[in-house]
Amino acid sequence: MRQHPIRKMIEKRKKGIFCALPSYCSANELVIEAILEEAGRQDDLVLIEATANQVNQYGGYTGMQASDFVDYIYDIAQKVHFDKERIVLGGDHLGPLVWSGEPEEEAMEKAECLVRSFVKAGFSKIHLDTSMRLGSDSADCWPDTDKIAERGVRLYQACEEAYQALLQTDPQAVEPIYVIGSEVPIPGGGQEQKADIEVTSPADFEETIRSYTKAFEKRGLTDAWNHIGAVVVQPGVEFSDSGVCSYDRVKAHELCLAVRQYPDLVMEGHSTDYQGARLLREMARDGVGILKVGPALTFSLREALFSLHKIEKEVIPPGKKDSDFINVLEKVMLEKAENWKKHYHGNEQELFLARKYSFSDRCRYYLGEPPVKESIRCLFDNLDQTDIPLNMLCQYMPVQYKRVRDGIVRKEARALAKDAVVNIMYDYEYATKENWQMEYR
Questions:
Q1: pLDDT in tens, 314-339
Q2: Residues 37-56 pLDDT 10s
Q3: What is the pTM of this model?
Q4: What is the C-alpha to C-alpha distance for residues 140 and 389, in angstroms, rounded to an integer?
Q5: Residue-by-residue DSSP string for 43-103
Q6: Most exposed among 62, 134, 238, 384, judged by the fewest C-beta atoms under 10 Å?
Q7: Alpha-carbon distance 125 to 174, whole Å?
Q8: Residue 405 near residue 390, CB atoms below 8 Å
């Protein structure tokens, strides 16, 4: 049986060898291409995750079920000549998140179906998230840790049953490794600006361990902890529309000491977007072995597309139709407001700015919409046919200008957009690899 890459990482850390893993959470084609191409340059494996609202048995906002997402990722890997055996697929926030408004039994039945579909499709890193309030829970208080653990263990058992079924058709299937937790940040960042985020206390972390141990024992799952690799905690990082709460290792110190008492576990850090290379590296050294990033990837891609559109408007020949990318994106977001309406707040001007520039990047839900995709295609075609002057590239995309100048990146619109994503990856590679050097920043 092949050892899971996350388990290998944990074993190295137990021996005093520094290492950690970035977890890239995105379903965007350009982002995935950039991730795989960069991993290929580094001769590395890559962990890519899909969230329950992106991908589920009803299609999610991408329209894909778990098996569709696997095919989608592998098709991109083939396109960019990346070995699919070096891809680790993870399921993020798997649980009743999407159906949290429904009564417990209905929501949990759908959650069981969800996690089984991920395991059967070949996802081997499974984040079981039952930290949310369900429709039948009291509206006055959050579910206690015992209830969260009880629901999480129910999903764990469903996953294990699905894995045993998978072995019947694929005897070489990698055994899943699980991530649990009771203090799980919401997907996609917070909705409110907070000056300070409360770090998970050692007592609350220990309570999570005790509750899961009790729930495992209640179901007779005596070896379950052998399959758990990480616990989601709040190390004090978060982001909102316009702000970032940065990691403070002093405030996280007591939590980190508590987790070290469990050498077979690492912390999984959510919402690490926008932290920067130095703080990410501190997190990894302090015990956050899995660093998740999602919105920052598409935020950087959106920045690049905006910059390319501004260049396009400057250089496009008279009479030639431009992509109108920025306006097309805005129009589609207004027509289909359900993916940002509950997340952005304020007057019309504030909403207008949030739709474009929010760190929570609800734009990512719209980059796959047909009118937006066609606009991006037109943008790339126009720029590649017209040629981008270096001085204008320097004005609008100074980081990419340096890499084009130095022969690292091709001066093609698609390559420039993807390089903006790679620029975010550099922070995570620096944070998780002992000898990785950052250049051309």
A1: 999 998 999 999 999 999 999 999 99
A2: 999 998 889 999 999 999 99
A3: 0.95
A4: 60
A5: T--EEEEEETTTB-TT-TTTTB-HHHHHHHHHHHHHHTT--GGGEEEEEEEESSGGGTTS-
A6: 384
A7: 10
A8: yes
